[in-house]
Amino acid sequence: MSANSYIYIVLTSSGTYFSKMIKYYTKAPLNHASIAFDAELNEVYSFGRKNAANPFNAGLVREDYRSPFFHSSECAVFRLKVTAEQYETMHHLVKEMMNKQHTYKYHLLGLIGVMLQIELHRENAYFCSQFVSYVLSQAGVSPVRKPPHFVKPSDFEDADMLQELFRGSLAAYTKQPESLNSGGMEIIKARII
Q1: For a disulfide at 143, which of 123, 157, 161, 169, Cβ 3.0-4.6 Å?
Q2: CATH number, domain containing residue 106
Q3: Contact 34, 132 (CB under 8 A)
Q4: In the predicted model, what is the mean pLDDT of the chain?
């Protein structure tokens, strides 16, 4: 592995009822955050629905952006340069969490805490942007200058450390050439806004 690596923060809007409720409060068009370990978005993790048909069964998930659930989703993809050690720390942490996936729950109460600016702790429970911020912080990376339990997806859009690569249809992004992660800057430059 090279001295530097990249991780990706993906913000999406699925258009579901729950997504629309969050959008109503935040006024932000993209209201779900995920962390990806490759530019092609094959290895993406977050806290969200475990089953597309049931919004009440939620927790730690590996997201499949090529599934029908995401076909009409809008997204913004951001890249963050990290050291190889930071990348491995984050990747290992998420893999360890996935090994105990059944113990993690969606932290719905934590969303209320964000609204009220009160930390509401619950063991093994996260909401999407809290999870992404937590994983980053465990590797000593803090693009958003607030505790993970107060981070909203839109906070990542304002983070200077992140480079926006793409904004638009998630389906369009996932159909792009798979050379994005190989350092092909000519492709990445075409996607920067």
Answers
A1: 161
A2: 3.90.1720.10
A3: yes
A4: 86
